[in-house]
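Whiteboard transcription, Tuesday session. T.W. wrote the C-alpha cells on the left side:
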C-alpha cells in the first residue's frame, strides 16, 4: 500500500456512521462517529475542574446526552442537536440513551477507559507501535 501525503489525508472522508433502530421513538436514528476534535471536546466535558483550573473529578451529568448531542445526525450528516439541547436529550428514556451511547462510543473510538482517563485513574499511556489488532 502506498504512503499517503498530507493532501490525501486531509481530503479523505473517514466519517463512519450507523443507523440504529429505536422502536421506543418509532423509527431509526443515525449515529456518526466524532472527529478527533469533537472527541477531545467531549472527553474534556467529562472533567470537573476546581477553581484553580486543576481536574477535580468527573462530571457525569447527562454524559450520554452530551455524547449523543455530538453524534446524532440527519441523512446529510448534519447534527440533529446542539449542546444547548442536552437537557432535551437527557430527559429521554435512560435505557435508550445508553443503548445509543454504546454505538456512539464505539464509532468514535471511545472505549471503557474514557472515563478512567478523564478521572486520571488509568495506567500510564503506552508509547510506540502496536502489533495487535
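and on the right, the sequence the group agreed on:
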Amino acid at each position: 500500500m502506498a504512503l499517503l501525503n498530507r493532501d490525501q489525508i486531509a481530503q479523505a472522508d473517514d466519517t463512519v456512521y450507523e443507523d440504529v433502530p429505536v422502536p421506543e421513538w418509532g423509527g431509526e436514528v443515525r449515529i456518526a462517529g466524532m472527529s478527533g476534535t469533537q472527541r477531545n471536546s467531549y472527553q474534556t466535558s467529562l472533567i470537573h475542574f476546581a477553581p484553580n483550573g486543576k481536574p477535580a473529578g468527573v462530571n457525569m451529568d447527562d454524559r450520554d446526552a452530551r455524547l449523543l448531542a455530538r453524534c446524532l445526525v440527519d441523512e446529510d450528516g448534519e447534527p440533529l442537536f446542539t449542546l444547548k439541547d442536552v437537557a432535551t436529550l437527557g430527559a429521554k428514556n435512560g435505557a435508550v440513551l445508553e443503548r445509543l451511547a454504546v454505538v456512539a462510543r464505539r464509532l468514535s473510538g471511545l472505549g471503557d477507559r474514557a472515563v478512567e482517563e478523564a478521572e486520571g485513574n488509568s495506567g500510564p499511556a503506552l508509547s510506540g507501535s502496536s502489533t495487535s489488532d
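Someone added at the bottom: Residues 16-117 form a domain with the rbstp2171 fold (CATH 3.30.2220.20).
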